[in-house]
Every structure is written in structure tokens, then in C-alpha cells.
């Protein structure tokens, strides 16, 4: 049942800080729908970064915090503000609109990509609906690759009921936020080769977390629970299957990337057929149509034969480079002779010559 609004105290975008007829203050939207009921505080207005500022007028004498309508956390220091008359104090508090958590001072905020953490009194506090807080510094948070998750430390040992649900005995316990998931944190169980991860919630449900190609947010795929040995075995089987699928997919992607890189190199090499040696000081390189393609770093460079040319690093120490600068044969031979069919004769020493096909990577 919606409370009756008595007075508007502050406005911010589509939200209104109001006093209800009941004496409580809270936040409603422009349609009058209640977002949050704070309690019987004296004042309420918007602070920055999605926070509310509330004041509760109290006497200068100490009072029981429970009588003020809030649960005061001992690690936070309260801020007393003397009013103009100096007759009373106003105690100032801050409330996170995302989860309703109350703080006795305004936190600082640290951003890790899409993740925002509130920092106060040596604690990191999430802005999820279920608050997670840990005594740590921001440097102890770990931003996962591609922004899929943010790992946070866990101080101490999990409860026994939690540990019994874990399929791994972890040497270091961590929790994590998932990109786009504002419900709370998850236990970080494993990061796969493709940087997707295995997580567990407090109820023991396991998920394979991927990154949506469209939204870039986390997508959870339910795997099961590990409530007994049979469920644990099935879950481990599924995890091993994921590992195999990830390895196979990465292998195919690497092969595809290699093929595409080779095609691009072939295209680039075709534009360098006019490459010729040039010298700056005592060093030689290659240039094509006035553009330097191989900087002058060699003692000597011969004219290309097809796509390859001989280079000398020290006196009588020869090797082979492609016209794009890639070293095809390391410089360690007394002489090299490149043929138009793409083969090369390499003189190891007088009377010993070996041949190879250039572009194969095999000496």
C-alpha cells in the first residue's frame, strides 16, 4: 500500500525525496510510486552518485542508537554538525539508493571498468542488492579480462556449510561481482582458458559465466549443485567437458587467426616487390617506394631475390630476411645464396653447404 505524500523535500531527475503523512521520509518516482521508505528522519535530500543524505536531529546527550531508527555500524564514525543556534546537533547519514544500506559518512568511489565499489573506513563495499563488504584496499580487487567479473578478497574462512558445497579446496578464497548482475557476489571457483569462469552462489548453485557478444554483460549458464558425492562427480564431469570445449575452440580460433595473419602478410609482401637496400652511415636496411620497411640495422643487405634477401650482421656472418623484415634464417652462416625458386644454400663452413626451402620455418 502506497503511503500518502505530504511534502516534496528534494528532486533529482525522475526521483523525489518526500515526507509521507506517516512522518517517514522516502523516495518516490514522478508517478508517486515508492522506491524507498527511509524512516522517521528529520530531513532527506539527494547526494551525489545515487546516494541520499538524511539528518536526524538529536540532543547533545548520548542516546541509544536503536531509538534513532537505524542500525549503527561500529566501524563507521558519525559526523556531528552543530546548527546555527548551537543548541543542538544534527547527525548526518548517507543511504545508497541501490541497496538501502546506511552509512555514517559519504564513501569514496573506485571504478574498475563497469564496476563501482564504495570505499569507507578501510572497507570495500559493493553496491549490489545484497551488500558484500570486506576490509581491504582497492588494489586487492582484481578486474577480470574483458570486464566479465571483478574479484574481491575474502577475509577468513567460509562457513562450513558453504565449504561443503565447494567442489574445489581453494588455497585462496575469493568472491566476485559479475558484469550486469546487481544481485550480489558469487564464489569464484575457476577461470577457464578463455577467461569465462565457474562460480557458486551461497545456495550451492554452480554457473558457467560467459560474456554476451551483444550486451558485453555476464550470462550465467546453470550447471548444477554439489550437495553429495554423486552431484559433485557430475558437476566435475561437466567442468572437464567445458575445459575440453574451451581448449578446442581456442585451438580453432588460433588456427584461423594464423591463417588470416598469413594472408595479410602475403598481401603486404606483394606490395614490397620493389624493395631495395639503402644505407645510413655504416648500416643497411630496405626501403620500398621511398618508405623504410626494414630499418638500417645490418652490416650489409643484398638485393632481394623474389621476396627474400641476404643480410650480414657481422663480417662473414650471414642470414636471410624477408622483404618485410621478418628473419627467415638466423645470421650464423659464412655465406648464403638465394635462388628464384625460394630455396637457399647456406654455407656452414668451407665445403659444407646445406639447403632449405624458405618460408617453412625449418633450418
State mean pLDDT (0 to 100 scale).
88
What characteristic shape results from the CA principal axes? elongated
Per DSSP, the total helix count is 2
Low-confidence stretches are 58-88
Beta strand %: 35-45%
| Sheet with the most strands: spatial strand order | 14-15-16-17-18-19-20
Description:
The protein has helices at 160-163, 229-270; strands at 5-12, 15-20, 25-29, 34-39, 43-46, 51-58, 79-82, 89-96, 102-103, 108-112, 115-120, 123-125, 133-135, 142-143, 149-153, 174-178, 186-191, 197-200, 205-211, 218-225, 276-280, 283-288, 291-298, 300-301, 308-314, 317-322, 327-333, 335-338, 343-349, 352-357. The protein is mainly beta. It contains two helices and 30 strands. The radius of gyration is 34 Å and the shape is elongated. The model is unreliable at 58-88 (pLDDT under 50). The strands form seven sheets. It has a seven-stranded antiparallel sheet with strand order 14-15-16-17-18-19-20. Strands 5, 6, 7, 8 and 9 form a five-stranded antiparallel sheet that branches. The chain has a four-stranded antiparallel sheet with strand order 1-2-3-4, with no helix packed on it. 13% of the residues lie in helices and 45% in strands. It starts with a strand and ends in a 6-residue tail after the last strand.
Give a short synopsis of this structure.
Helices cover 13% and strands 45% of the residues. The chain has helices spanning 160-163, 229-270; strands spanning 5-12, 15-20, 25-29, 34-39, 43-46, 51-58, 79-82, 89-96, 102-103, 108-112, 115-120, 123-125, 133-135, 142-143, 149-153, 174-178, 186-191, 197-200, 205-211, 218-225, 276-280, 283-288, 291-298, 300-301, 308-314, 317-322, 327-333, 335-338, 343-349, 352-357.
